[in-house]
Amino acid sequence: MRVLVTEDDDDTRFAVETSLRAAGFAVDVATDLPAADEALFVNTYDCVVFDRVLPSGDALHYVKHRRQAGWTAPVLFLTGIDNPVEGLPYGDDYLVKPFAMPELIARVRSLCRLTAVAPPPVLRLGDLELDPGRRTATRAGRALSLTVKEFTVLERLVAAGGQQVRRDDLIAAAWDAEVRPSSNVLDVVITALRQKLGPPPVVQTVRGFGYRCA
């Protein structure tokens, strides 16, 4: 997880950077808003930490401007004034100085999860379309009623883009470790998928290996 810390106070910036790195984050630092703007132009961050008041301006105004332009990265404000109402419409969290580093780390980790759970892209192969975020599937515009296992197996096959997928990989994706690769549960799901997908056939058997979509 990559974090940008914008703080003009050398001691605070060093302490925050060191603590976040020790907690396993990749950290970039900036001392003012122009430097932060340059970093944000070049890189994508899972969380951005702003000191609220900087010599180059109010970070709240900067974030507000970027939000209006469609910027969505989670923001944590560090502030010496306990007034979250003003900042929260544009930031996602705040900490009042002085603060404990374990709390800062916990807040940053929580905000990073907001980007980690972004919905995956829609998958398409021929006339087949799968939306993993909504867990919906259609073929030639026709909605498919799939079980969780059926959807997971089909998702893995479509994501492979026509390449062969091993039986073991399909089983690992849809079942826990208690289901051994020799089990016939995958074959049952494949049979059901073929019936629901209809003609022409989509799921092909690769003998001695697994399956593929074409």
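The record above closes out task 2.4. Task 2.5 opens with a second protein, given below.
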Amino acid sequence: MNGLYALKPWYADRLSGVRASLVRREVSPDTLTAAGVAAAAGAAASLAWLPAPVAALPVAVLLAARLAFANLDGALARDTGRTTRRGAVLNELGDRVADLVVLAGFLPLAPLWLVALAALAATLPSWVSLAGAAAGAPRRNGGPVGKTERCLLVVVAAASGWAVPVLAVIAAGSLLTAALRLAGLWRETA
């Protein structure tokens, strides 16, 4: 059930040189969290304002940056011994805000109710994982439509102009991902 999340170790390895450079420059992990939200906002603006397929390249680059920052902030905190409970809260809030900001880029392209449904559904897998972690269970990630898959689907919409079908897939796939995570969590916490 890990989906594209299974590539995270490979991706983290590709970012190791960047991470080492950030450690040398004493960059704050919180700065990277904020940069991830900014990259998400840039992707949303590109999706909203540029026509398909012109939007595809900037959306893809900015979402790749968003995912890189999401990977780097926690790794940098661990590498530098700067992990804090406040930083963990900021990281989670930054990820949820970035998810919602990206989906806000669909507002001029699709009905408000569908954008809102997709946004709500997209947050559910993370809330399930966080609830499980709060209960002492291992954090569940990945799934049929986790964060990485949602980013890929947004790029598909930017390339094709298929905002409504992509939002429908994000909503349905995110609900399925949340249900699968909850089922696994339910078994673990029995």
